[in-house]
Amino acid sequence: MIISRNFLVFLTILSCIKFYGQKKILHTNSITSRISIDGKSNEEAWKSAETAANFVMYQPDNGKPINENTKTEVKVLYDNDAVYIYAVMYDDQPEKIKKEITNRDIFGVSDYFSVFINGFNDGQQDFRFYVTAAGVQLDCVATEDYKDFSWDAIWDSRAVITDTGWNVEIKIPYAAIRFPSSNKQIWGINFLRNIERNIQVYSWNLIDTKIGAELTQNGLLEGIENIQTPTRLFFIPYASFYNQKDDNQSDNTFKGGLDIKYGINDAFTLDAILVPDFGQTKFDNAILNLEPFEQKLDENRPFFTEGTELFSKGNLFYSRRIGGFPTGEPTLEDNEEITDYPSTVDLLNAVKISGRTKKGLGIGFLNAVTEKTFATIKDTMSLEVRKEVIEPLANYNIVVLDQRFNQNSSVTFINTNTTRNGTFRDANVSGLLFDLNTKKNSYSLNGDFKYSTINTYEDYNGYKTALNFEKTSGKIRYEVSGKYISEDYDVNDLGLIYYTNYHAAYGNISYRILNPTKFFNTFKIKQEANLEIQNTTAKTQEAYLKTTIEASSLNNTYYEFSILYSPHETYDFYEPREYGRYVYVPRRIYSYFGFEWNRNHAFTIDATANFAKYDEENRQTYGIYINPKYRFSNQFSLEYALEYSNRKNDRGFVGYDINGIVFAERNREILSNVVTGKFALTNKMALNLDARYYWSYADNHDFFTLQEDGSLTPNPDYNLNKNRNFNSWNLDLSYSWWFAPGSEIIVLYRNYALEQTNQVEKNISNNLSDIFSSNLTNIISLSVRYYIDYNVIKNKF
Hints:
The chain is mostly beta strands.
């Protein structure tokens, strides 16, 4: 009996070794009968379809075969219009299946099934489709470095809970994916199953976590023959109504426009927006910004988030530049004042073309035009009003060529160009990037060279170059890199960069477990070292050693701890706000700790704490973040996020006097409160709440004059009030309904206000009273978007 048992184990090991060394192959059949997407396999065609089975664990215990009690079986069929997937997820405890209802593209606490499709089977890009046990759809375009969940395709699915687990049936029209015009198709394909209560993910074809690349590890789908790529032409007309009211005025606005998506060929898609409307995008998180740099804002406009993977190459594209803050400052005569200065520039239209050929060449083109924008200026004596251009008609353009080869390497060229009418500033930036990986994805060599040209009253050029080598597989991994940025390197017309004019060296080494131990599901420790030297002065701009530990326990609680030590003084070349000047920054030590409880619990919390101590008397910073969440049911959840920071004896720029640049020693507090709620009526209809209150102040108590050597000397004569007190309030309450595939109705109520003064108020209740007694703006809007598929219209007529 013992011999036979050991023999079976030996055979299992041998079969696993053979299985791990090759790709699985699934054969599919053509059908002519209709498939009803109801989550049931009643159709005769399913009975003869080949089954994909024998799933193995992807995370956390990579390579472990799936338990017989939770085995998974998948079948695939196709016809002239679509590919069909039917999956059976067995579960001996079906009452424990997690099935939270969320908005589209949000996983929540739910089991899910996913199919990865690569029509070109080139290991470069997957189209991924997810269905949760609650029937919620998620989809994304995935590359090795980026998963774009803002991409939304039109496809059909149905999930059904059964006595033995749950089933899902999916129909993916060919218009939703990309594949070559060949009589015989061979697609890369993989299937994933997530068992949320155990936080375990299984895949059909093994995804080996010892290998740095995931997309090259799909299995194969064979048998699809003689299908025609459909015409990919979609129209999305929209209409919007806004009612805006505050204490002084009220107005109504109607808007209408059209988005167009057109498949130029098998590989490339054109997206265009005519008369865009972004009035219902999420509000920006306003802050009291005392830093020398602008605040980086999140992009919430769908056109600039969906399908932009190619344009993000090289980090030269910051989409908020398009339609962002005006670049010009009006010239004021005596007795003149600005009565209206628009905070944004209107976008007239935008178009982008992107895709990748079957030989691995990715091509991206984006063009946007923004409107001429004026400031209104009033003469306080004559009361005459005039307008002055603060942003001319502007054209923004991006071209990307990205050649991938060997399924895991690439060479990229990118060019960004900003052209403004008249005598305003123009800019052009080009970049050449490369990313080379060994065949087994064990090592990587990557780098770039970028060159910028600015045309203004004084033209100047700059460049940036970097080289990076990494070991990307195994338990022990490491990275070394170096970079050089010249003084005049500037990408800020269509990109975003804060620090220039320095060279740097960086390195790290890390150790991780690849499979769970008796203490941890995951564990990683990483040691980093970084040194940055300013080019002009050869002074140290940044220097630190950093140790980070990340781990998750067997009960799936996540922990992270890091400590950063800056061993000697550095110099800040930006805080003085004047070219060639710098300020001394003392040595410091910074620590951070965070944890997140198992997210499957109805009540969960994640929290962090940080502390920094400077080698300067009584100068320190500490902060906390607490984020409790409670899931009342699968439909209803609430979460609250509290973030607090206290900076004692912080030092920063405040202005000028006859002695030069003035700094202040100040105490600062920052408090942010965010409440997020969701009530899902169905998996296509939900109420959502986003509310945020932010308060911050800067209380200056001592002033200094900046010296040429970067030191600060007392300036007791400076008596201007440079204190700041800042309050911001935003509330969004929305109802959304996906009433048809790709078609949505949104009703939004928005309420917001912003109040700032130089009188510090440290009582939180008084600040709340001030913001709610200020001039609140109220907006009620209704937006309807309808998705029209050319193929559906063609078939009807």
